[in-house]
Amino acid sequence: MPPLPDTLQIKIQDNILLVKLNRPNKRNALNDELILAIEQLFANIPAGVGCAILYGEGGHFSAGLDLSALTERDAVQGLHHSRMWHRALDRVQFGTVPVIALLHGACVGGGLELASACHIRVAESSTFYALPEGQRGIFVGGGASVRVPKLIGLARMTDMMLTGRVYPANEGLAIGLSQYVVEEGNGMKHALELAGKVASNAGMTNYALMHILPRIVDSAQDQGLMMESLTAAIAQNTPEAKARLEEFLAHRAKKVGE
Ligand code: 1HE
Q1: Does residue 101's CB lie within 6 angstroms of at least one atom of ligand 1?
Q2: 186 lines ligand 1 (CB under 6 A)
Q3: Together in a domain, 21 and 82
Q4: Residue 119 main-chain phi, psi, to 5 deg
Q5: Does residue 255 sit in helix, strand or coil?
Q6: Most buried one in 91, 102, 198, 202, CB count within 10 A?
Q7: Residues with Cβ within 8 Å of residue 90, at least 6 apart in sequence
Q8: How far apart are CA 221 and CA 113, in angstroms?
Q9: Is residue 105 lining ligand 1, measured as CB closer than 6 Å?
């Protein structure tokens, strides 16, 4: 993999990949360099990594699309630019490891699109969410139309864009923008704890959650149920599943909640 730009920094801690957006003076606004680096990184997750944590340097997760480049694009360039975002964020969602977004400060526009491509969102209490595209006179182009209504529903996304509504962290939790809210400064500790659990799952379980469950959700009931049965059959046939079930039956495995 070619070297990543300074605006995207990585570190491996045990088997967890820490990925930092590093453009704090521009509030981690996402320019092409950064989006292409995200695409490249998530297409080449180092072997042995079991989970990734994506977070932002400075006071904010991300202020979204870098607006400074927008005025120079014509319609066709705009189409290709949006498709580039789709490719990159698909790499995040449908890559090889589950991704936890650790949020604080602004998680707006393209920043929310990036966060919603991740599998788990942990929000520190300073987090706020918005889709200011409506106010900027543009439209979402990084996948929000597809991913955000799946989190919060069509009506709430429509309201966010029509009125510029800003959701604070606790309301974001209530409506499904994040799965967790934690005290300011505790996010990394919490994300690492979750990442450890995620990374210890059977590989087929994580694969099914990342690659099969979203397709089941997008399917008609009949096809969805068939895909579920096939997935369940494959998962239970793996040596890892058989070993874990034996552990439980021998009273050596943790009970639920332990
Ligand atoms: C930026 C950007 C940006 C900051 N593109 N440069 N997103 C938005 O509409 C959000 C725009 N940003 C803001 O509302 C605010 O910057 C924040 C609430 C996120 C943070 O406020 P604050 O007071 O901490 O920072 P600031 O003073 O506004 O910004 C600091 C610098 O970052 C400043 O640059 P400077 O050179 O004057 O110091 C800002 O211009 C710069 N900056 N945000 C470019 N977004 C695939 S389609 C997705 C479509 C979208 O994402 S649209 C939504 C874009």
Answers
A1: no
A2: no
A3: yes
A4: -95, -30
A5: coil
A6: 102
A7: 117, 143
A8: 27
A9: no
Q: Where residue 231 sits, what CATH number does that domain have?
A: 1.10.12.10
Interval between CA 26 and ligand 1 midpoint (Å): 6
φ and ψ of 71, to 5 deg: -70, -15
Number of domains composing the chain? 2
Element (H, E) at 77: helix 75-93
CA distance 27 to 57: 8
The domain of 163 spans: 8-199
- Mind listing the pLDDT tens digit of every residue in the chain (258 residues)? 889 999 999 999 999 999 999 999 999 999 999 999 999 999 999 999 999 999 999 999 999 999 998 878 899 999 999 999 999 999 999 999 999 999 999 999 999 999 999 999 999 999 999 999 999 999 999 999 999 999 999 999 999 999 999 999 999 999 999 999 999 999 999 999 999 999 999 999 999 999 999 999 999 999 999 999 999 999 999 999 899 899 989 999 989 988
CA 258 to chain centre: 27
Q: Which residues are catalytic?
A: 113, 133
125 and 39 belong to one structural domain = yes
